[in-house]
Design brief:
There is one protein chain. The chain is of the alpha/beta class. It is 40% helix and 22% strand. It is built from ten helices and twelve strands. The chain has a five-stranded mixed β-sheet, sandwiched between helices. Helix 5 links the parallel strand 3 (90-96) and strand 4. Helix 1 crosses helix 4 and helix 5 crosses helix 10 (285-300).
């Protein structure tokens, strides 16, 4: 069944005869009749009754005509939207773990946009949701990290969902703590140093596990632990409760609170930061621009790019 066949049916009904319809459609009557017959055979219905007095719609034909007109109306809307429309909006959606550099790059991308109209989306969300959203093409890009601990589990999940991981940079571990914290002046801290303070981590949902944690390391036992879902809350708790969380070490003075500092964490573990994409999809121009800004932002913080 084709749109052309649907147009034939509607025109025949409008003209009241096969002969007149063939003239208006610039199609020979035998070709028009054959096309209608092929459609009837495909759908296993009779659309027209044929007699010496002409043609008439059957009951099935009348119902079919209703649907055919709806389909043709929708097709006309598509043509109007994409053939004669003004330049389309720029669209881009990014799903990310809670990284300030990801937001900073998003701001830079929007500032560089020359389009009069755009619709951009950034989702700071759980690790598993990032993977699902990119797999379902709700987001073009996902930003997350791999470590020696989680790379096998995360890597297997990415392969199952036809996603590709693109390394961006490797970061030694740091902690976010309040500038007023006694540890803030240390050149380096250990997990033992942090034991007296509340450990704050991003909550990963009911089916979450350590493999999906945003923190590459965590205390063996923390008597004070707080789970949160958004970055603003975690920053407020670091300041208000003198807590800490494990991070990449990339801070942004414009986006972050000046009352918070990053301090290197003594650990053999590192975070391999990167972005994921759906191997079945081609990135939009806006998404390519975002990746370029992401690289610029990471480099501006002194980190060496892996895929530059």
């Amino acid at each position: 069944m084709t749109l052309l066949q649907l147009k034939y049916i509607v025109k025949i009904v409008e003209c009241g005869s096969m002969n007149e319809a063939s003239h208006e459609l610039y199609v020979s009557q035998p070709a028009l009749s054959s096309s209608v017959k092929e459609l009837e055979n495909e759908l296993h219905i009779e659309i027209f009754t044929r007699s010496s007095q002409g043609i008439a719609l059957t009951i099935d034909g009348a119902e079919f005509l209703t649907y055919a007109r709806q389909v043709l109306d929708q097709a006309a809307l598509l043509e109007e939207r994409y053939k004669n429309a003004k330049p389309r909006k720029q669209l881009c959606a990014v799903s990310t773990q809670h990284y300030m550099f990801a937001v900073e790059a998003f701001v830079e991308m929007i500032n560089s946009t020359k389009s009069d109209e755009y619709e951009f989306t950034i989702r700071e969300t759980r690790t598993k949701d990032i993977i699902t959203q990119v797999a379902n093409m709700l987001s073009e890009i996902g930003i997350l990290y791999l470590s020696d601990f989680n790379k096998d589990v995360i890597g297997k999940l990415l392969r199952e969902k036809h996603l590709e991981f693109h390394p961006l940079f490797r970061a030694p571990l740091h902690v976010f703590i309040a500038r007023s914290n006694p540890l803030a002046t240390r050149r380096k801290v250990t997990m033992d140093d942090l034991k007296p303070y509340p450990f704050i981590q991003y909550e990963q949902g009911e089916d979450g596990s350590f493999y999906f944690a945003e923190e590459a390391v965590w205390p063996d036992y923390s008597p004070k632990q707080i789970n949160v879902t958004d970055r603003a809350t975690i920053l407020n708790f670091i300041i208000g409760l003198n807590g800490y969380t494990v991070c990449t070490g990339i801070d942004n003075g414009d986006l972050n609170n000046e009352k918070i500092v990053t301090v290197p964490l003594e650990s053999d573990e590192t975070m391999l930061l990167g972005w994921i994409s759906n191997e079945r999809a081609k990135l939009s121009n806006a998404a390519e621009t975002y990746l370029a800004k992401l690289r610029e932002v990471v480099a501006s913080h002194g980190y060496t790019l892996i895929d530059a």
